[in-house]
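Human: I'm a chemist; would you kindly supply sequence and C-alpha cells for a protein?

Assistant:
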Amino acid sequence: MKKSLFCFILIIGFILFASIKWKINADLCDPTLPIIPFDYENPTIPNHILNDTLGFSYDNMPPSNPITNEGATLGRVLFYDKQLSINNTISCASCHLQEFAFTDTARFSIGFDGGLTPRNSMSLVNFRFIKDGKAFWDERSPSLEHQVLQPIQDNVEMGMMLNDLVLKLENSTYYPNLFQEAYGTNEINPDRIAKALAQFVRSIISFDSRYDQGRATTPRDQEFPNFSTAENRGKALFTTHCQNAGCHSHETFVNEEPMNIGLDSITIDAGLGGVTGNPMDNGKFRSPMLRNIDKTGPYMHDGRFPFLNAVVTFYDHGIKAHPNLHPELIDSTLWSGPPQLPVPQDLELSVAQINNLIAFLRTLTDNTVLNEVKWSDPFECNNPVSTFEPQPNIPLAKVFPNKTQDYIWCQSIKKPIQEIAIYSNTGKQLQYVQSINKMEYQLDLSNWPTGFYFIRIKINQKITTEKVFKI
C-alpha cells in the first residue's frame, strides 16, 4: 500500500513538473533564418569614416575573433533567444531593443525575476569602434568577448550558470547545427557562445544618418546642403563653441576615455573608481557614442535625464563642482586650483542655440540600423501579432494630439486610468505602465521611431484602444 502511494505521488509530481516546464517553454520556438546567411563580413563604411584615421583605428575586433557570416548568424540567434535566461523570459535584446538603437527605454532594465539593473542599458551600436573595446559604464570588462557573458550570469539580469546554459543549448533543436556552421564542429562551450555574441554585436554599425549623407559630399566645417539652417547652426555650435566636440570627437562621435562630467557634487556611484580603487577615478563613466542619440534616452549611467533637451540644458548650466571634474568642463579663468573645488564652465547658450544643437544631434539618427533585418529578431514567437488584438472601442478616454512629435496625453472621461500599454503596428508590446490611478497620463514618444502605434488604455476594467502616429 505504501509503495503504491509513493508511486502515485511520484507520478503526480512528474506530471506537475512536466506541466510547469511546458508552461515555461510554451512561448519558445525555432528561429527563422535565411538559407544563405546575411552578409555581416563586408559592411559598407563610407570614405569619411575610413579616412578618419584616428577614429577608425579604434576598431577593436580581435584577430582571434573576426566577424564571419555564420558566426554572426549564431550570435544573432543567441542575442534574441530567451533560453539564455534561467526561466526563458529574458534575452539580451530585452534590454537592447533594435528600434531604440539597441538600448532600453526604461531607466533601469527588468531582469528575469522582476529585479532592476543598477544602471541604464547602453546602446550597442558601433561598439566595434570603442577605443580599447572595454565594456560597461565603468569599463570593468576588458573586451566584448568578456562582457557578453556577464549579463547571462548576473543574478538580476538573466540568472544563468554557463554550464547549465551549455546543456540547455546542446538539447535544443537548432543550436548544434548553428555551432557546426559557425565553427566546423557542433561543440558548444562558453568561449564559442561569447565569440558568436561578440561577432553579432560588432556587426551592428551605423553610418547612414543624414549627417553621413551630408558629410559624403561636404567637408565637416562647411554647411551641409541637406541640412536646415537650424541643423547647420547646431553643427557649427557642436564643432566650435561647445566643448562636446572635444569629448565626442572624430567621425564616429565617440569619446576616448571615461570622464567625470559633474553629474553630482559628491560621489554617489563610483563608476570607474569602483573598479580601479583609485579615488581620482570616482564618478568617471564611459561616454556613449552620440550616433542615434535621439533614440537612446533616458540618458546618463542612471537614466536621470529623460529627454535630450535636459541633457543639453545640463551641459549649459547644470554641471556640478566635483573634485574629479574633467578639465574641459572647468572654467580655468575662475578656478585657482586645488584644494578649491573646480568651477564648472557654463556654455551660456540661448534657447535658440539649444534648439539648434538638438536639431543637429538628431541628424545623427540612422533609420537603417533601427530596421535592418539582419540585426532583427529571428524568433517569430517573440513578436506575436496575437499579443494584441484591437477591440471595438469603448469611449472611455481621449488620446491627443494625433499626430505627435513627442508627447501623447491620455485623458479619462469618468474613471481613473488603471493601465496603459503601447504596441507596435505588428502587435509587439513596447511599453506597459500599471497602477496609474490618475485621470490623465502623459506618454513620451520623443525618442521613438516614426510610425503607427496602438495605445491601449484600461479604465474600470474596460479597454479602449487608439491608433496614433508618431512623426
